[in-house]
Write a structure and sequence with these properties.
The protein is an alpha+beta fold. The chain has two domains: 77 residues, Arc Repressor Mutant, subunit A (Orthogonal Bundle); 62 residues, no CATH class. Helices cover 36% and strands 12% of the residues. The strands form two sheets. It has a three-stranded mixed beta sheet with strand order 4-3-5, with no helix packed on it. A two-stranded antiparallel ribbon has the order 1-2. A hairpin with a 5-residue loop joins strand 3 and strand 4.
């Protein structure tokens, strides 16, 4: 491990260090942030941990969770929750929805059309205020949709879905 001065210098040398408010940008937080921003697949804490461990072998899963919590509280990343699955993390801070592929489990960002104001579509009770709105669309991603034969029956498609789930090339591309 490097000295504190070396670690601070390495952090300050990197472009676009996010403001964490009351939290200090530590080398561990920076590495976790870089992993999240380098991926479009909305990684879980475990996914982030395994990738960060390659460059920081002594980091613990608890440290990764603490880093993600600090970044979520600071508004640098968003926590995405889908049913009872582990939370995933998204560095795309623009208003958008998520497409959850029920075949392969991939989560993709779905941009909102400019004229769409989802909060105005809600009929909230008088005096209520929406502070956050999350939209998740469940269905099939383009790769799985293309790989799934359109004439299959539900019983044969469930077994073939597991074996024919495509590999997604976008998993390691940066967030846009």
């Amino acid at each position: 491990m490097g000295s504190d001065a070396t670690d601070s210098q390495q952090i300050s040398d990197k472009a676009s260090v996010p403001d964490l408010g009351d939290f200090r940008m530590t080398p561990q937080r920076r590495q976790v942030y870089e992993v999240i921003t380098s991926r479009k697949d909305h990684p879980s804490a475990s996914d982030v941990y395994h990738q960060v461990k390659d460059s920081m072998p002594h980091i613990s899963l608890a440290t990764v969770y603490n880093c993600l919590e600090a970044m979520t509280q600071s508004g640098v990343v968003r926590q995405v929750n889908l049913n009872r699955e582990p939370s995933r993390y998204c560095a795309n801070l623009t208003d958008h929805a998520h497409l959850y592929c029920q075949t392969c489990g991939q989560v993709s960002d779905v941009p909102l059309k400019e004229a769409t104001l989802l909060a105005q579509a809600l009929d909230l009770p008088s005096g209520a205020e929406a502070t956050q709105l999350e939209v998740t669309v469940r269905g099939t991603c383009p790769a799985c949709h293309q790989a799934t034969p359109s004439t299959s029956t539900s019983s044969s498609s469930s077994s073939s879905k597991e074996s024919t789930s495509p590999t997604h090339q976008s998993d390691s591309q940066p967030n846009s």
